[in-house]
Design goal:
The protein has 2 helices and 4 strands, in the order βαββαβ. It is α+β, with helices and mostly antiparallel strands and about 80 residues long. A 4-stranded antiparallel beta sheet has the order 2-3-1-4, covered by helices on one side. The chain starts with a strand and ends with a strand.
């Protein structure tokens, strides 16, 4: 498993958090997603053999938010 931290922009409320976490956790290869509205970040644990960082970012972007890898935050 691999864990990354993403900066998320475009969230307006806690429903946005549930939307992001729900979509990611329903995605094959994603083990867990923990999005923080106050910090505008998300930590995602995933299997890199099943899904890439870029695909995770594209999923978040497709929901109407913007996501980018926090530099140096591959946890």
């Amino acid at each position: 498993m691999k864990k990354i931290k993403l900066q998320i922009t475009g969230m307006h409320c806690t429903a946005c958090v549930m939307n992001i976490d729900g979509e990611l956790e329903d995605t094959a290869g994603v083990n867990s997603a923990s999005t923080n509205y106050a910090k505008q970040t998300s930590e995602v644990e995933f299997n890199p053999e099943d899904i890439t960082e870029d695909k995770i970012i594209k999923i978040i972007d497709s929901l109407g938010y913007s996501a980018s890898l926090v530099e140096g935050k591959k946890v």
